Amino acid sequence: MSENPTRRAFGKTLLAGMAVAAAPPVLGQTESGKVHRNISGFFIHEWEPYFPNLKNGVILVDTGSRALQYWSEDQSIYKLYPTSVPLSPELTRLGRTKVVKKVKDPSWRPTPAMLERNPDWPEFMPPGPDNPLGTHALYLSWQYYRIHGTHDTRKIGRRSSNGCIGLYNEHIAELFDLAEIGTQVLLI
Questions:
Q1: Is residue 146 within 8 Å of residue 84, measured between CB atoms?
Q2: Pairing relation of β-strands 67-71 and 78-82?
Q3: Is 91 exposed, middle or buried (0-12, 13-18, 19+ CB in 10 A)?
Q4: Which of 7, 90, 128, 164 is the most buried (most CB within 10 A)?
Q5: Pairing state between β 184-187 and 58-62
Q6: Is 45 among the residues known to form the active site?
Q7: Of these residues, 36, 136, 148, 151, which one is catalytic?
Q8: SS3 at position 95
Q9: Residue 58: CB atoms within 10 Å
């Protein structure tokens, strides 16, 4: 006989369901004509095994389940968002970092490695609907790595980035307001 879920576990399960339900509809069509949502199954984590404290809030990115979780310093706010993650293990950086800069309407410059792989890409892109960083970007202490929005919502829930973590523009706008400079970040 299984135990009854705790109130906290139930609340997190409910929040996960609400995050998926609240996500903008991202529909794709398979060869058979079936329509499906582009959302991965989330693995919900507790913050305690990963962070010594919640100073400045914490962001935990699970690249396996393609989900980002945020906890505020006082634990009054918990958020779960679907993400895009790097295309391959070579592009994936795991470990601890922090938010060092926040930019609304960011411009974008591909990294030298991106330009080498994609020589037809522009060397600079101003803010706007074609900008791969979407409407907001959280710059991390690792050079070239960001948590940012995307205008291409098909990427969410997939391995589709060149190293960054992507969110729906609506979700990055919310996280942008919650996260502060110094927010702890861990990618697992």
A1: no
A2: antiparallel
A3: middle
A4: 164
A5: parallel
A6: no
A7: 148
A8: strand
A9: 22
What own/partner pairs with CB < 8 Å and gap ≥ 24 does 2-8 have? none
Q: Which residue is catalytic, options 45, 136, 164, 171?
A: 164
For the stretch 107-162, pLDDT in tens is 999 999 999 999 999 999 999 998 999 999 999 999 999 999 999 999 999 999 98
Residues in CB range of 123: below 8 A, 6 or more apart:
109, 110, 115
Angstrom distance (rounded) from CA 5 to CA 69: 20
What are the φ/ψ torsions at residue 84 (nearest 5 degrees)? Answer: -100, 155
The pLDDT tens digits for 53-91 are 999 999 999 999 999 999 999 999 999 999 999 989 899
Catalytic residue list contains 164: yes
125: left (phi over 0), alpha (psi -120 to 50) or beta: beta
Alpha helices in 77-162 (DSSP H): 112-117
Picking from 97, 81, 86, the residue whose alpha carbon sits closest to that of residue 178 is 81
Find out whether 167 and 179 touch, Cβ atoms under 8 Å.
no
What's the pLDDT score for residue 182?
98
DSSP helix/strand/coil, 170: helix
